[in-house]
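Record M20 family metallopeptidase, 395 aa.
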Amino acid sequence: MTVSNCSPHPRATELADEFKSWRHHLHTHPETAFEEKLTSAFLAEKLASFGLEVSTGMAKTGVIATLKGNKGNGKRIGLRADMDALDIHELTNLPYASKHPGKMHACGHDGHMTMLLGAAKILSEAPDFAGTVEFIFQPAEENEGGGREMVNEGLFESHPVDAIFGMHNWPGRDVGTMAMKAGPMMASYDIFEINIDGKGCHAAMPHLGRDPITATGQVLLALQTIAARNVNPLESAVISPTQIFGGDTWNVIPDTATIRGTVRTFSPAVQDLVEERLKAVAKSTAEAFGCSARVMYQRRYPATINSEAETAIARAAAIRVVGTDKVDPNPESSMASEDFAFMLNEKPGSYVLLGNGPTDGNCLLHNAAYDFNDEAIPYGVTYWITLVDEYLGAR
Ligand SMILES: [Zn+2]
Ligand SMILES: [Zn+2]
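=>
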């Protein structure tokens, strides 16, 4: 197999229409966390038709396909795509729009699956490398941690790899561009719920109760001092309260009020600090107003941290595909998060961004008008093929 320089692989161009039809099929049939049954069956059927060894059922709907090179034993590389859609009602009017009401591929995972499937097809036609490629299709990236489930169910015991690689489409970056860096690419994702307990009473006689509403207002403001006053200004943290509940009517001070929200950080030390301060600030502020606070703090996803050596390999592959001037070697880290982090916690690897074109017309991730850009498919397919060549090729 020859890998062309600075343009899509010729097979990826030849097969572009077929890949597009796979992507549109997946887009029409979106499925959410751990319910990706049609998706899983579609992937497994295609992968088996390429002659690959396919295993299904890990983390309920995960699919893994194994390809051994024809040049003997060697290293083992894992390539991962996510499979799930979002609970969004699609508003695109596309001919291939979602047929599942309230579900939509609004994060481009339809494109991610298509690109990895396309790479599996082309690589299986000419596996001219030494070693093994594991194609890993993972359910439930959004919220539910399908990546963690696969790791917990023994992904890397049943399908051992020396390194693991992931990719996400990125609207706002041009098609035919890529971006990656060593270190944190995405933040950790934690959630919290603070219940502030007071004593309910008549709203006209507040002195007879202990008002959790006023205390909640103070806690809400005090939480913002954690990032501003406790975290080192050269580090990053976001504390975003996103829900407030309390009270049922005009003239009653309730017993309890609730704040919920999310925390994003890049380093475990900052994550520890924010958790500790959030609990202390909530409790002591509530107490200052005669109330008490119960705090639930849950760590959902760790930060997504790319390793040095594997990111250098990913960058070398990307440069071969799109050219040096189209590879951003220092993209801004995102405060969004990604459950590929669980795989990167186990194995060295790199998570890269693939340009998906302009953000015109609400073309934003998680927007009801989003559609993955088919023009990006040949670049993503070629990146995977070239990465395998960089990692396992006889060079
Ligand atoms: Zn998403
Ligand atoms: Zn996504």
